[in-house]
# Entry
Amino acid sequence: MSSASPIKAARGVRDILPAERAAFAAVEHAASEAARGYGYQEVEVPIIEPVELIERGVGGDTDVARKELYRLEPHGAADGESPARLVLRPEGTASVVRAYFQGGLNQGPQPVRLFTIGPFFRHDKPQHLRYRQFVQFDVEVIGDESPAYDAEVIEMTWGWLRAMGIGNVSLELNSIGDGACRPRYLRALQEYYRPLRDRLHPDCQRRVEDNPLRLFDCKERQCQPFKEAAPRITDHLCSPCAAAFEEVKSLLDAAGLEYRLNPFLVRGLDYYTRTVFEYQHGALGGAQNALGGGGRYDGLAGALGYPDTPGVGFAGGVDRVAYMLQHELGTVTPPPAADVLVLPMIAGLDGAAAQVGRICRAVRPAAVDYSDRSLRAKMRAAGRTGARWAVIMNADEAGRRAAVLRDLVSGEERPVAWDDLAEALA
Ligand code: HAM
# Structure
């Protein structure tokens, strides 16, 4: 062994080992079932994107773009191209909207419903349930501005959580207006905050002039007392935004979904217009209590240089939901590595054991223990894997193409011919 210290994973990223992977698989399966149930189609978009896509998409002044981007070293480009400035994607919406135009999906029937599940990267302070690499279930409906799609995205994603048995979730809802009414509201917000500037955190002092809506994203304790009395966006909506918000609420009422109006929910990314929403779960606690969130982004396509096109979407945190299944609900039991373990009792039976493994594998996942441990040790290990059967082989029986089949649950054993194994295990 070398004297150098063993290499560990980078800070803030982690391995998803089999027990947790089973919970992830359950969450991802429920996600794709929920999305397909509403007519969504799966897409995949690159993990590496041009930095401009993110800066112009989520907004250059958001934490995501300013502090949390993983920027890749520029590589010398071929053929005199200037080297691309690339980042690891911190979110999926900007990429999916880009793909919608770049792939010509804007030319077909509208709206287009898309979903994707994959890893995202934010260089945030690592904490419980806040990772630097995490998985999102992302859904986007692009090409129609009807608030009925906002309500449908909420209903579908609520159904995703319900299908996994996750209750006790609070749906927070707000509207943050659009280009017609928000500027006037932001001026009112600035007028309210300017006299308080000296009492705010330095980041927020800057935000008062640069990006006042982001004042509501602030988690610093010193800034909290001023939020409550701040002007509320919902009192400043123009009539089209107010009507859209009313319609979303009445559709959610009709769907029987309960929600809590939260005038301070602004969602940390600059592309949102009108509806924003978030699912929060008390059991997760602190700043990591959002299981997912989303909203409408009618200005995003234009900000990326494409024709103005409305859209609405959501992203759920797969790591957090998987954590709920594994640790709060305990509803996921990881499947055993194999149902059947083939245990040769002595050395020299590898070929025969491989053959028996093949026969079993036709009907069940089967693994062969080729180690030179004693049968007792093999049996003990077998008991711990959660396998259901052991096929025990000695040389004599192997010569006659026979073995002993042991039920690891009941402890019953019986002799069985190789040719009858498949039927016995089926
Ligand atoms: P977001 O709120 O930034 O929205 O992220 C959505 C969810 O991803 C969060 O609620 C959380 O569950 C999970 N998440 C975010 N960061 C982390 C992290 N560091 N560790 C673990 N989980 C995390 C978006 O990303 C938007 N693109 C959602 C959207 C889609 N809006 C419209 N369409």
